[in-house]
Specification:
The chain has about 550 residues and is α/β, with parallel strands linked by helices. It is about 40% helix and about 15% strand. It folds into 3 domains: about 5-165, 3-Layer(aba) Sandwich (Rossmann fold), CATH 3.40.50; about 185-340, Rossmann fold (3-Layer(aba) Sandwich), CATH 3.40.50; about 350-545, Thiamin diphosphate (ThDP)-binding fold, Pyr/PP domains (Rossmann fold), CATH 3.40.50.970. The protein has helices at about 5-15, 30-35, 50-60, 75-90, 115-120, 135-145, 160-165, 185-195, 210-225, 255-265, 315-330, 335-350, 365-375, 385-395, 415-425, 435-440, 445-450, 470-480, 490-495, 510-520, 535-545, and strands at about 20, 40-45, 65-70, 95-100, 125-130, 155-160, 200-205, 230, 245-250, 265-270, 290-295, 310, 380, 405, 430-435, 460-465, 500-505, 525-530. It has a 6-stranded parallel β-sheet, with helices on both faces. Strands 9-8-7-10-11-12 form a 6-stranded parallel β-sheet, with helices on both faces. Strands 14-13-15-16-18-17 form a 6-stranded parallel β-sheet, sandwiched between helices. Helix 13 (about 365-375) crosses helix 20 (about 510-520). The radius of gyration is 24 Å and the shape is globular. One of its GO terms (biological process) is isoleucine biosynthetic process. InterPro entries: DHS-like_NAD/FAD-binding_dom, THDP-binding, Thiamin_PyroP_enz_cen_dom, Thiamin_PyroP_enz_TPP-bd_dom, TPP-bd_CS, TPP_enz, TPP_enzyme_TPP-bd. Its EC number is 2.2.1.6. This is Acetolactate synthase.
């Protein structure tokens, strides 16, 4: 068979279900071979960036990689933003790009660039196929690396002449093994710290939303009552209705949940990535005792210097702690501050539940209504912008992976293509994407993809005619902001042009009913709401400092 056919067979063997992308001349052989597959579906997108975001969300929801595909040159460069987002947010993704013939890669030639080197900084591994017989090994290695904790993106380049080669190789059978586990002696050291603490608190990160880990975390908290602060990406690791749920951390400012950290005499981090919420924001004096439990060792940082590292399968680590609690009994903890934290946040969340405003609607009101309309298993996807900060603070979850926020690379344009992928993975659930008017127009062309796929999803646009988050930050720091305003299309005409249902809501009391109507309509729906972003600075003043969109290491 052709090498391109062998590539498809290897992908089938790995359980790959979807390839999202925009093909070109240099991967025509692969496309012809893919057309013969009855196991893998190709989703034609309107831009490679959209394809990468779709593959990311498929990976985050399923735990298995999908493929995003582009040709050489601009096709490859268009993929890179979405691939970087997937990699930093720990989503398993395979990136497949075409390349010119190996006979011209050594010299100046049309659209030729070193794509593999370009992808290396934003993937776990990037390689080119130099010999068709190696395809089974390369694909097996790529999938294994993409799936291995921490998951991420892997890039494979297939030059057009290699794709045409005849080859007799066969796919390698996937063999998956149990992850390594923590040593008993080290775990005993951690258990000793946990039992002697009086006011411990847990920070759950991205790694804690794996279903096995979330299950064991909930069992641990049911036994101990220790409160859990979730990062933006760990929403749903514990049920929002549980007494030990202390809601979300990640804003750059002091907030009610951080009070629990201030009072804590031990911080237990579970699956925590430093890109989610830098420790200098919650351990500014570098004096908090920390237990680090994760699949990988802790990043070296002066504000994050754990007393003990529990490196291994996180679910198994929590299971081992639960076993010790059963054997040795439950310690007595002082949890009054955690109860107060929860009470204060519950008051904040409900404050605007009965708003009756016209012309603009407050973020808090919309998110309250969204939570009432959405079921426990339904999925909300947030784009990047001022709305993301409100979603992080005011929208909470019952189950893991039901609120998807990009928080490592933080790329705008994420929500619409992501919602399309979510509707493929979970067609029985309600899918809601929330974007600002700026972020939505960055991948607006995927409205056609959603209509063509008959995607049942709702996109909600918070309209403010500006880059609202940048304005928020500038005004907080300088007392004013530069010109960040722009015009928008007639949204209802835009929806009609793409064959979407369209709704505009300016009365707060009508928002919930409109959202319910949109979910009941067949096919994609667009809801546009003028948002009251005067609440941004009001929140800043109340919390005492500006909220930053993506805390990074110093």
């Amino acid at each position: 068979m052709k090498a391109s056919g062998l590539m498809v067979k290897c992908l089938e063997n790995e359980g790959i279900e979807y390839v999202f992308g925009v093909p070109g001349e240099e991967n025509a052989d692969f496309m012809m071979s893919l057309e013969q597959s009855d196991k893998i579906k190709f989703i034609l997108t309107r831009h490679e960036q959209g394809a990468a975001f779709m593959a990311e969300i498929y990976g985050r929801l399923s735990g298995n990689p999908a493929v995003c595909l582009g040709t050489l040159g601009p096709g490859a460069t268009n993929l890179i933003t979405g691939v970087a987002d997937a990699n930093m947010d720990r989503a398993p993704v395979l990136v497949l790009t075409g390349q010119g013939s190996t006979a011209r890669l050594h010299k100046e030639s049309h659209q030729i660039m070193d794509v593999v080197e370009m992808f290396k900084p934003v993937t776990k591994w990037a390689t080119s196929i130099y010999n068709a017989v190696t395809i089974p090994e390369v694909v097996r290695k790529a999938v294994r690396i993409a799936r291995t904790e921490k998951p991420g993106a892997v890039h494979i380049e297939l030059p057009e002449d290699i794709a045409k080669h005849q080859v007799s190789a066969e796919p390698l059978d996937p063999r998956r093994f149990r992850r390594s586990v923590v040593d008993d002696k080290i775990l005993d050291q951690s258990f000793d710290l946990i039992t002697h603490a009086k006011r411990p608190v847990i920070i759950a990160g991205n790694g804690a939303i794996r279903r096995r880990a979330a299950k064991q975390l909930r069992l641990f908290c049911e036994k101990t009552g220790i409160g859990v602060l979730s990062t933006f990406m760990a929403k749903g690791a514990v049920d929002m209705d549980a007494d030990y749920c202390l809601y979300t951390i990640g804003l750059g400012s002091k907030d009610y949940p951080t009070l629990a950290i201030d009072e804590a005499d031990l911080v237990i981090t579970l699956g925590f990535d430093m890109v989610e919420y830098h420790p200098r924001l919650w351990n500014p004096h570098k004096n908090k005792p920390i237990i680090h439990a994760d699949f990988l060792p802790a990043e070296i940082d002066e504000y994050y210097h754990p007393q003990v590292e529990l490196v291994g399968d996180l679910a198994h680590t929590l299971w081992m702690l639960n076993q010790r609690l059963t054997t040795h009994g439950i310690p007595k903890y002082v949890l009054a501050q955690q109860a107060e934290t929860r009470r204060l946040m519950q008051n904040e969340l409900a404050e605007h539940a009965n708003d009756d405003t016209s012309g603009t609607i407050r973020p808090q009101k919309m998110l309250w209504d969204i939570r009432q309309v959405m079921g426990p298993e339904d999925i909300l996807l947030s784009d990047v912008g001022a709305h993301k900060m409100w979603i992080a603070r005011h929208y909470h979850c019952h189950q893991p992976n039901t609120c998807l926020i990009p928080n490592g690379f933080c790329s705008m344009g994420f929500a619409l293509p992501g919602a399309i992928a979510a509707s493929l993975v979970a067609p029985q659930r309600r899918i809601l994407g929330i974007s600002g008017d700026a972020g939505f127009l960055m991948n607006v062309q995927e409205m056609e993809t959603a209509k063509r796929l008959h995607s049942n999803l709702v996109m909600l646009i918070w309209e403010d005619h500006a880059y609202g988050l940048i304005a928020w930050k500038q005004e907080s720091e300088f007392g004013r902001h530069t010109d960040l305003s722009f015009d928008n299309p007639d949204w209802m005409q835009l929806a009609g042009a793409f064959g979407w249902h369209g709704h505009r809501v300016e009365q707060s009391t009508q928002f919930a009913d409109t959202l319910e109507t949109a979910f009941r309509q067949q096919g994609p729906s667009l809801i546009v709401v003028p948002v009251d972003y005067s609440e941004n600075m009001a929140l800043t003043r109340r919390l005492g400092e500006m909220t930053e969109p993506c805390p990074v290491a110093s």
